[in-house]
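Duplicate of #3305? Posting structure anyway:
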């Protein structure tokens, strides 16, 4: 196994991706997986596993920042983990049953779906702002209250909990198979459907993703370790640059979230998902 520095450019790129991911609550693997597949020409299983390992370190870094800010709803997170973790284990186990083109198609479909959901939720929020609907609902009779480290108090109610658990299970399975889906579905459920304040939703989602990705990454790393020195060497030559990058970006993302307009972030990411998803479908032909 030979260590090479040819992929040095992944370090600054990882900082950028992790900053964007942690500020928006979007899983970094959604960017790393297509990057590894398309730019580095890696096999989907190697690309997805490398993306999960990279995302684990990036989200752990961000988790520390959000934990210090006291924005994580642990009760909600544990409820979701009961469904996302078992699903991630099953997804990792059965991902080998799908041919490479099928994994790519699933990945592209997931990106297009998530992009559609994010854009639709943004449009819905804009309509509600213009029509000034449901103002009273979001002011009184909330089930949950959370106070962050700066003294800000957030009031919210997690709606349709069964749907949230279903999304957690689906997202966990997708994390195990194609490295993406959980963070995106959780953001859609909590922010778009339940109107949970974005800082709380993102921080809680980060906690859920860290634990779920940890489980999924262990399975992929075991496959790499037993798959021969060539595969393991590929992964190591990638993560020696991506891990330091995402650790830095994981700290920068939460700080950036406080400054960027949430609407602009949602629209930009939804468009980016569409572009990447379509491009992934084109590469299948």
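Output from current build:
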């Amino acid at each position: 196994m030979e260590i090479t520095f040819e992929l040095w450019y992944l370090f600054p790129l990882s900082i950028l991706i992790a900053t964007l991911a942690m500020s928006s609550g979007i899983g970094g693997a959604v960017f790393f997986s297509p990057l590894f597949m398309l730019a580095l020409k890696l096999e989907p299983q190697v690309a997805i596993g490398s993306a999960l390992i990279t995302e684990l370190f990036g989200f752990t870094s961000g988790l520390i920042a959000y934990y210090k800010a006291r924005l994580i709803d642990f009760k909600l997170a544990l409820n979701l983990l009961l469904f996302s973790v078992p699903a991630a284990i099953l997804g990792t186990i059965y991902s080998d049953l799908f041919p490479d083109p099928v994994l790519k198609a699933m990945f592209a479909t997931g990106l297009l779906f998530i992009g559609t959901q994010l854009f639709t939720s943004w449009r819905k929020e804009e309509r509600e702002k213009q029509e000034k609907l449901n103002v009273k609902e979001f002011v009184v009779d909330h089930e949950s209250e959370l106070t962050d480290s700066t003294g800000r108090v957030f009031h919210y109610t997690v709606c349709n909990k069964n749907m949230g658990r279903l999304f957690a299970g689906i997202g966990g399975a997708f994390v195990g198979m194609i490295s993406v889906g959980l963070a995106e579905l959780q953001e859609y459920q909590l922010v778009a459907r339940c109107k949970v304040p974005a800082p709380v939703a993102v921080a809680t989602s980060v906690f859920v993703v860290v634990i779920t990705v940890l489980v999924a990454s262990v399975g992929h790393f075991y496959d790499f370790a037993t798959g021969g020195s060539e595969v393991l060497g590929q992964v190591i030559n990638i993560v020696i640059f991506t891990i330091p990058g995402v650790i830095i970006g994981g700290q920068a993302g939460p700080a950036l979230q406080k400054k960027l307009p949430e609407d602009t972030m949602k629209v930009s990411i939804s468009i980016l998902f569409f572009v990447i998803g379509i491009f992934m479908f084109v590469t299948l032909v």
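Confirmed duplicate; merging threads. The longest helix spans residues 100-131. Residues 10-284 form one domain.
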